[in-house]
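Student: Send me a single protein entry containing the residue sequence and its fold in token form, directly below this note:

Tutor:
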Amino acid sequence: MAAPLTIAVKRVHEPVGPGDGARFLVDRLWPRGGSKENAALAAWLKPLAPSGALRKRYHGETAASDEAWDAFRLDYFSELDAGDEEMKAALFTLDAALVAGPVTLLYAAKGTERNNAVALREWLARR
């Protein structure tokens, strides 16, 4: 039986913690006010971020309703399922880190419960 995945999700601006393991930024844009040194990244996995069109469409929702979140997740999962070569290479990097130990997915969004890193963790756990 395979060991369960250890994937944490954290805002990129939060301090590095002892249990973070390998830290991966999964946003397409570099977060405002953040430095690469303070982020202590193993890698910036831009190809695993939602497409620009999907990100803009979801963030354009004023209330970020349950329906908008569900639609975002489904569209994002479809993008991940259809992954191109860059996305597959990023997933290979992430999978290798997961074999070695815990992983933390970093994001810059203000919402802690509804963001692309939370959705990505869900997709990774389901595959």
